[in-house]
Amino acid sequence: MRMKRLPTALSTNPKSLPDRGNSCIRVALDVPLSKLFEYSLPEEIDARIGDRVAVRFGAQQKIGVVIEERVVPELPAARIKSISALRDDAPRLPADWIALMRFLSGYYQRPLGETVIGALPPRLRSTKPLPRKVLKEEPHAPGARFFARHRLTEAQTGVVERVTGGFNAFLLHGVTGSGKTEVYLHLVAKTLERGMQALILVPEISLTPQLEARFREAFPEARLALMHSGLEDIERTSAWLAAARGEAGIVLGTRLAVLAPLPKLALIVVDEEHDASFKQQEGLRYSARDAAVYRAKLAGCPVVLGTATPSLETWHNWILGRYERLELPERASPGARLPVVRMVDLREDPAEQGFCKKTLQEIEKRLTRGEQSLIFINRRGYAPVLACEACGWTAGCGRCTARMVLHAADAARTNPNGSLRCHHCGAEGAIPRACPTCGNVDLKAMGRGTQRVEETLAARFPGARVVRIDRDSARRRAELSRTLEGIRRGEGDILVGTQLLAKGHDFPALTLVGVLNADTALVSTDYRAPERLFAVLAQVSGRAGRRERPGEVLIQTRYPRHPLFAALERHDFAGFAQAQLAERKAAGFPPFVFEASLRAEAPKLETAMAFLKNAAASVRAPDEVRVFDPVPHLLTRRAGLERAQLVMQSTSRPALQEFLTLLSENLFTAAPRAVRWHLDVDPIEFD
User: Fold this and answer.
1) Residue 227's domain spans which residues?
2) Closest CA to 304 of 168, 190, 191, 174
3) Which residues, in sequence order, are CB contacts of 280 under 8 Å at separation 6+?
4) 129 is a domain residue
5) What's the total number of domains in the chain?
């Protein structure tokens, strides 16, 4: 690596500076200010737009990115510092990448410096030089050979032929098991044949091992760059460099992969596009799905949004003609059919220890036939509440307005004695021996989580191999991969899991899915709750019967005639989406309006509420924008801070964006230090 170091002191002689008309550059730095910073460019350093540079900022050395060059400085010459060095250990960031950063910064109302620097791997944000093993370029073959595992169906062939070069947004709407991954492989093959790059986005790290294996098997000669936050810094930086140099023909990763520079980008695939994990919930709160569509437009390439249960925003865009819908209406495996979905009425077949008789009977049938069953409950831990029946005490989190979740002892893991944990702030404590209020030693575990369900099934079926998969049992990526591969080989009879098992996995012997505790979302105050419930139930149902053996899904509920469950029984997403969109339109919710939320955190709720009121009054909202009164969050206290928010809506996206720009500029200059705040554009969570 070459690094030219220069003096960093302020220049006091204007004559020592090159010509003012073309010597200055503007640099993006990761500082909480919505501005670029001017630096002079010495003659011996040829820094251009997209270059990383080391600069002096106050008493610190920082890494910045040149955003503008040959600018007329706004500051007096005596106040302009020179850049310290040009960092040429990574490729120059291309113009389309800078354009993407400008869009994300403007749309999501975050400083450009924070956006640009935050999109780089941590090692490239540091002033320390990169290790030699990262800088070494690996030789690689062109990677055009493609080993297809299956012959495409007629519907799959039609999709592959339709997705051609040039920008277009395609909604690939395929039922579970319809072979969307096989379509992705053929589209990537066409891309690699042209010597171009393909970007594949998945919502969660847990889905990358299986998809990575499929791509490596299909393209053994191609360079594949894996990108997600679970990688070590060196590995992540190497993948980023391979993508930025154009060496990696396939870039596979979670939402952060959409921020990687790709000089030969010709295809973007967003798998499970409906998934909420594509929305970043801290810092730059961007939607990777929406960023992918914008990026495809910049690159002039197609973007494919694949899912069995499209988000209502994507479905609405198809209705409006903005996206083109490509359909895979049947399962791809010969003889495979969608599972039969049935409701088990808890009023007629009451649950004991969480299970109805019907569900237990069907599990026993699968055990007799040597088939696998999956029990889905979207709550990890042993029980959601530890309570005293004598006085009514419940174990609450001291830092959040939430109950602590009881986690049972697990000697094989990291919790040998059991504990109480808060799933919101991460606080953990010992299980009390007696009620701290009245001294009663007979404390009760109320409700069920995956640990308790696992315990119940192990006692009911002592000869069965019960495998639990949740974030507690699969903390390491390698461990999760081994467990999932073992299940595919038949090393497990009954699976117990959360959303980690609900999507993207193919278990050939699994023929039964049982769903516990499905009714909670039906009474939620979140208008997105029905959409999310339908998606997760359709996805987990899709794990059953993916081969020639028929699948069955049993959903335990007290509302068997609810319209949502009726649509699930018919596998009728279109009907469900039509009903939901009608309700959203009548209520004035997205996608018929555009939303943003200003959120504040402070030691006292009064401080947060006052900040929001003052913020709303500081900028006059146009007639097209409606600003609601600030309210506390449902989960008012989290991690020791009181939280509140105000919501802004408009039927005009430009009007809302113009208002948010004025509001954010005002907040960055006038917000009190006692309050932590952020703007969330197109929010998907309000807890």
Assistant:
1) 154-328
2) 168
3) 255, 286, 287, 288
4) no
5) 5
